[in-house]
Amino acid sequence: MIKYELNSMGNKAKDDNLYQEMCRVVGKVVLEMRDLGQEPKHIVIAGVLRTSLANRKIQRSPLTVEAMEKVIHALSGH
């Protein structure tokens, strides 16, 4: 398991919740891509999340938005 460090927040419970949400959003994208017959590459996953995040019609919790942003940053290197 790859552990993404979230030391900057300093709140262990929030860090754990954020990490779990990051894993959930990545897992969802990977499974959806598999169902569509696409190979889940890290840059493609980041692109899917970036596109999804840009859709403001979908209500997301602040935790989910933060998790998606951190995953995009971690996978794309930006």
From TrEMBL:
The keyword Lyase applies. It is an enzyme of class 4 (lyase). It comes from the Bacteria. GO terms for molecular function: fumarate hydratase activity. Keywords: Lyase. InterPro entries: FumD. It catalyses: (S)-malate = fumarate + H2O. The keyword Transcription does not apply. Its EC number is 4.2.1.2. Pfam families: DUF2767. Coiled coil: none annotated. Belongs to the FumD family. In vitro catalyzes the addition of water to fumarate, forming malate. Cannot catalyze the reverse reaction. Cannot use the cis-isomer maleate as substrate. NCBIfam families: PRK10292.1 (NF007630). This is Fumarase D.
